């Protein structure tokens, strides 16, 4: 994602976006796995006594709530990574344009770019 070399940081927006896609994929996977576990627990609990079934149902509801929060946080994190990649690329493009404009108006030899 970011490489620091001799005090200069470079960022590869493509790698950032790929990482964001992976994070989002993991969030989706977590959501699917919770749904699967929940179905399995509910199926198993069908043969339990009422108080055990109720207690398990309460725990599953807590897990579901926590998982929704975790998944939402992962999705937000992925969105922020994407946004950072896009902003970095836009800033680099803007900086390149400014440097090109400055070098053409002053002269590359005076900027020690020749």
Characterization of the model:
It is a single chain. By secondary structure, this protein is mainly α. It has a single domain (2-111), classed as Helix Hairpins. It contains 2 helices and 2 strands, in the order ββαα. It has helices at 13-45, 50-106, and strands at residues 2-5, 8-11. It has a two-stranded antiparallel ribbon. Helix 1 (13-45) packs antiparallel against helix 2 (50-106). It is rod-shaped. 5% of the residues are buried. The mean pLDDT is 85.
Structural class: mainly alpha
Main sheet specs = 2 strands, antiparallel
Rg from alpha-carbon coordinates: 25 Å
CATH architecture: Orthogonal Bundle
Distance between the termini: 30 Å
Beta-strand fraction estimate: 5-15%
Beta-strand segment tally: 2
- What's the CATH class label? Mainly Alpha
What string gives the helices and strands in order? Answer: EEHH
The main sheet orders its strands as 1-2
Counted by DSSP, the helix tally is 2
- Low-confidence segments: none
Shape category: rod-shaped
Helical residues, percent: over 70%
Number of structural units classed as domains:
1
Q: How would you state the average pLDDT, rounded?
A: 85
CATH topology: Helix Hairpins
């Amino acid at each position: 994602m970011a490489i620091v070399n001799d005090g200069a940081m470079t960022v590869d927006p493509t790698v950032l976006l790929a990482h964001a896609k992976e994070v989002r994929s993991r969030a989706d996977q977590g959501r699917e796995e919770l749904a699967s576990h929940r179905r399995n627990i509910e199926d198993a609990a069908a043969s339990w006594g009422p108080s055990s079934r109720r207690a398990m149902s309460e725990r599953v509801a807590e897990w579901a709530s926590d998982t929704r929060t975790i998944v939402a946080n992962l999705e937000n994190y992925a969105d922020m990574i994407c946004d950072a990649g896009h902003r970095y690329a836009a800033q680099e493009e803007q900086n390149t344009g400014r440097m090109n404009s400055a070098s053409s108006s002053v002269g590359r030899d005076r900027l020690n770019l020749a």
